[in-house]
Amino acid sequence: MPKSPSSAVDKALDLVEAVARCDRPLRLSELADEAGMHRATAYRVLLDLVRRGWILRAGDHYLPGTVVLQLSQVAATNSLAAVARPVLEELSERTGMMVNLQIPETDHARVIDVVRPARLEMISDLRDERLPVHRFAGPLALVAMLDPAARRPYLRQAEEAGVELTGGQGLLADIGTVERTGHALERGRNQKLIASVSRAVGSAKGAPICALTVVGPDAEFEEPRLAGIITALHDATGRLREALTTLSTARPSAGTDDA
Description:
The chain is an alpha+beta fold. It has two domains: 8-75, Winged helix-like DNA-binding domain superfamily/Winged helix DNA-binding domain (Arc Repressor Mutant, subunit A, Orthogonal Bundle); 80-246, GAF domain (Beta-Lactamase). Helices cover 45% and strands 19% of the residues. The protein is built from ten helices and nine strands. It has helices at residues 8-21, 28-35, 39-51, 66-71, 73-77, 80-95, 137-143, 148-160, 171-181, 225-248, and strands at residues 26-27, 55-58, 61-64, 98-104, 109-115, 130-131, 184-187, 194-202, 208-217. It has a six-stranded antiparallel sheet with strand order 6-5-4-9-8-7, with helices on both faces. The two termini are 19 Å apart.
């Protein structure tokens, strides 16, 4: 039952606290019930919380966002990073490379977890860094999964940096390549001696949730080894998608949500 009238701040905090204390991702109807508010009200507040990074939306379910993770180790236990960690570790062991987990934000991607082998300690892990689409494989893979309208903030940032969007060598052509191949390959654009390949994990509705990125010395991204890295990456994103789906269907709520 909805609680008595409260301020917008109260509503936002109720939702953040409900997500953080729950032992699994919640659907909208469950989250509204937990916070004691109408679903329509919860949905409106959640839009802003997702935009600001306090809550992460994964398909029809909600998890603690990156801002919450910076404040609460308890929330981190049930976070996307915690779910993805075994997949990152296995992918790093299989490829011998550094692997990171990125999520999309307003006009960039952010690295929220990293597994880095000791031999690659000289390569920056970029944890908590804001990565633009025109310089890194992770955001490129995420943006390729967005519809044209949702891509605009990312592309605007690239244009402001002087990056060409159109033409055979333009950023839109790179996005088209990712759409065809299912992964983004970056060699030498950000650092000449470092290469990376990334693949996004999407929700059931096709929106990007996160991306796994394999990073290592450029010399180790030659064929035939590159093909093996890409195969391992595709396998890993499949496992992560399955893990997120399993979480999402753990205890489905009755009825139909309005988001």
